[in-house]
Design brief:
Shape: globular
Oligomer: single chain
Number of domains: 1
CATH architecture: Alpha-Beta Barrel
Helix content: 25-40%
Structural class: alpha/beta
CATH superfamily: Aldolase class I
Radius of gyration: 17 Å
Length: about 280
Amino acid sequence: MSEPVIITVAITGAIPRKADSPAVPVKPSEQIESIHEAFEAGAALAHIHVRNPDESPSSDPDLFAEVQEGVRKHCPGMIVQHSTGGRGRSQSERGRCIALRPDMASLSTGSVNFPNQIYENPPQLVDALASSMLENNVKPEIEVFDAAMLYNAKALLQRGLLKAPVHVQFVMGIPNALPGRRKVLEFLVSELRELMPDATWTGAGIGRHQLEMNQWCFELGGHTRTGLEDNLRFDKTRLASSNAELVARVADLAHQYGRRAATPAEARRILSLPSADST
């Protein structure tokens, strides 16, 4: 429990929110500023989506590159993680950001129901994204929206499409997917330790589940994620007015559990990532 906690900040997300969420950063300059504020508040990892000028989800590598360059310039050592998620983007476009060689990229290892759509991740797409990450030396963050995705990750590891140690994120609280229940998280963590004992893990709670998920992660020895992407998703339970405010709250909460926010250098060590000087 004395290990520092890696705080991930998910600043934007893929779902446009114009009128109800003016604080969500959309333009690259806004995103860089928001990440920098979160970095100063204690975040060591930035999970990044980008948007087109009309605020629709984008796969434009130029937008990803602009944000990535800004983060590396203004947030020394911070881990850059690009999203390959599929909401609003075709399967053929979702891996375009990997060629930029961010430190990490998200990888969902199966399909799952969301409230009004199917989040499609067919096996051939999962294999293609995993192979591209291997080729570009980008570490995947396995995003688990359903229990089967954890076992799928183990299969990818056995097939050589993932490198150990694997990093897993449990996403809980999305309607029709994993519920926001501590017993479910305890089961998933137990299974992870049995399947991949050297793996690291983090948790993301959606909407009203965000704060309790932060607490469960501290109590169970994991890392955690916060940010407006999760805070305002689906049920739009607003917990703060900015990403930095959410990060500061989590960093302060960590002390109540005998932990503290990891520095970027510590986060890189924990996740077996190269030092910032070598990226």
